[in-house]
Each structure stands twice: as C-alpha cells, then as structure tokens.
Design goal:
By secondary structure, the chain is an alpha+beta fold. The protein folds into three domains: 10-62, no CATH class; 68-121, Signal recognition particle alu RNA binding heterodimer, srp9/1, CATH 3.30.720; 124-188, 2,3-Dihydroxybiphenyl 1,2-Dioxygenase, domain 1 (Roll). The chain has helices at residues 33-42, 79-90, 146-156; strands at 10-11, 14-18, 22-26, 29-30, 45-47, 60-62, 71-76, 93-98, 101-105, 112-117, 139-142, 159-160, 169-173, 179-183. The chain has a four-stranded antiparallel β-sheet. The longest helix has 12 residues, at 79-90.
C-alpha cells in the first residue's frame, strides 16, 4: 500500500480499487486510524490527479466493467430468410442457424449480425411519420462505389428507398423493411 500526502492524516485524490466493480474516490479527506486500517487490509491504493467527473462528493463510483459489442440483432418475421439476405449482400458466413435464430460472422473479426424471429414484427417505415413504426436500428455499410454496391444490394433482394437524404449515401430497405445505408467517403 502506498500513501502519499501530508502525514497529518490527509490524502489528496486517493482511490481504492475494490475488485471487481467499485472504486472509492476521496480527496482531500482526513483518514482516521480505523479507515487507514481498512485501506491497508483491502490493499491497492492508487494516488493521482482526479479524473473528469470524479469529485470528493462521489464516495462510491462503480468502475466501468469490460464490455465488447459482439453483434447487432435484427428482429424479423423469419430469422433465416433475413439472415440469407444479409449473407448474399455481405458474403458473411453463418456461424449459427437454428429455429428462430441465425448469426453471421464478420470476416474481419468485428461485430457480427444476428437475426431472431419476432412473432409480432411490424415493418418500419422510412422515413417514419407520426404514428408510423420507427426503425430501431440501421446499418451503415461503407462501399467503394455506390452504383455497383447498390446494384448488388438490389440483386440480393433490397429495395432502394424513395427518400434519399444525402448525395454520398444511398438508403436501401432489406426484405423486412430495415433501412441500411451504403456510403462512400465524400471527395471534399
């Protein structure tokens, strides 16, 4: 255990790491002998400058657990049919294909796409107006050539959306109405 500061019972910006989820942040605060004993028992005291958002009034702060996005899940009336469309569109391989659920794996190791049956699925409107079912998510897919990629998307089963908000983006609808955008880097 490292303790720094003046040794009259003050420690400035001390944080105690508690496995696995909490950090005690204090500073400056008088350390009573009993608290010093608790700190010594629990171990691992880290001293340093305060981080943004941390202050003396935040006595217990949950630490950020490690989180990794491994996929995006799209609801559909038939998971296998929608997964088949994205397999044709992206060329990604199936890693799961079971009743009501399918998953495609990204070849570059990024998040995959999963699909689940939703018995009450309602097709979203694009763009949504008052009272319309709104999209819950859309995919952005970078391409080298909008026209070539657009022709491929239509051949795979997509529809070109009527509303197109930008010149360097094309909005398409998958067979179940989920919007997805093909885009290129604008030559500015």
């Amino acid at each position: 255990m490292k303790i720094a500061g003046n040794f009259a019972g003050q420690i400035t910006w001390t944080s105690l790491e508690l496995p696995p989820r909490f950090t005690i942040v204090a500073g400056p605060l008088p350390l009573l002998p009993a608290l010093q004993g608790v700190l010594a028992t629990l171990g691992r005291v880290r001293l340093g400058a305060p981080q943004p958002g941390f202050g003396a009034t935040e006595a217990m702060m949950p630490e950020q657990p490690r989180m990794t996005v491994t996929g995006v899940v799209l609801g559909a009336p038939d998971a296998q049919e929608l997964a088949g469309f994205y397999h044709r569109l992206l060329g990604w391989q199936f890693v799961a294909d079971e009743p009501g659920w399918a998953k495609l794996e990204s070849p570059d190791g990024g998040p995959g796409l999963s699909f689940q049956d939703e018995s009450g699925y309602v097709r979203p409107a694009w763009p949504a107006g008052p009272g319309d079912q709104q999209m819950m998510v859309h995919l952005d897919i970078k391409v080298d050539d909008l026209d070539e990629a657009g022709a491929h998307a239509i051949a795979a089963g997509a529809d070109l959306a009527t509303f197109q908000p930008q010149d360097d983006v094309r909005v398409y609808l998958d067979p179940d109405g989920h919007p997805f955008c093909l885009w290129i880097i604008s030559p500015d």
